[in-house]
Amino acid sequence: MNELTDQGDRRRYIGWMYGGILLGLLNTFAVATYGALGVSRNYVVTDNMALEAAGSDLPQTNSYLSLYPGAVDWLYGIAIGMVLGGFLAALIYRGFNTRTVPRLWAERFGDSRPKRFAAAFAGGFLLLLGARIAGGCTSGLVLSGVAQLSLAGLVFGISIFASGVFTAKLMYRRLS
Predict the structure, then answer these.
(1) Most distant CA atoms of the chain, gap in Å
(2) Whole-structure pTM over 0.85, yes or no?
């Protein structure tokens, strides 16, 4: 049961099937009109825009940064849309979560906010670093790879879900 149900709240959410269909249609449109769907590259694009605004020539002279021009395009719009869409969904369904330390985290690791924020930052940093080293994010590989029936996408999709279940069971095992 999720925390909303635990609180006796009867909020309505979009069903997983409708969300999946909408995501599938978006993915099909993206692959047909642009190419593979993925947004982790937008961190580099944003870095390039900030560096160019500061007058740096690094985006043109650095071999890595020069691969990602600092310009807003369709995939950048998707990233902005994900943030705005999440915000609008929280507004519509009144689903803002102001809890800074989730209940499961507090049970396992304590209720220290600095510890939780440090772990979240470190995890996000490692995830982004890995995505950029790999040349793309996990969601891009799974969504675009599976949609194109790529063996790498299928194997990675199965692996990421299996490792997620294992990690959740390891980190959030019942405390006796």
Answers:
(1) 58
(2) no
Return the exposure string of 120-135: e unless at least 16 CB atoms fall within 10 Å of the residue's CB, then b: eeeeeeeeeeebbeee
Q: Which amino acid is at 56?
A: S
State how many domains the chain has: 1
Query: Which residue range is the domain that position 44 belongs to?
Result: 1-98
Reported as a pLDDT band with limits 50, 70 and 90, residue 55 is very high
CA distance 3 to 159: 28
Return the amino acid letter for 135: G
The reply to whether 157 falls in a domain is no
Place of tokens 């635990």: 6
Domain assignment of residue 35, yes or no: yes
145-162 pLDDT, tens digit per residue, is 877 788 888 888 888 889
pLDDT of residue 48: 92
| Cα(121)–Cα(115) distance, integer angstroms | 10
Average pLDDT, the chain: 82
Let me know: does 109 contact 123? Beta carbons within 8 Å.
no
Instruction: Tell me the H-state helices in 36-150.
Output: 41-53, 58-61, 74-92, 103-109, 113-134, 138-147
- Residue 67 backbone zone (phi > 0: left; psi -120 to 50: alpha; other: beta): alpha
How many Cβ atoms sit within 10 Å of the Cβ of residue 75?
19
| Helix/strand/coil for 129 | helix
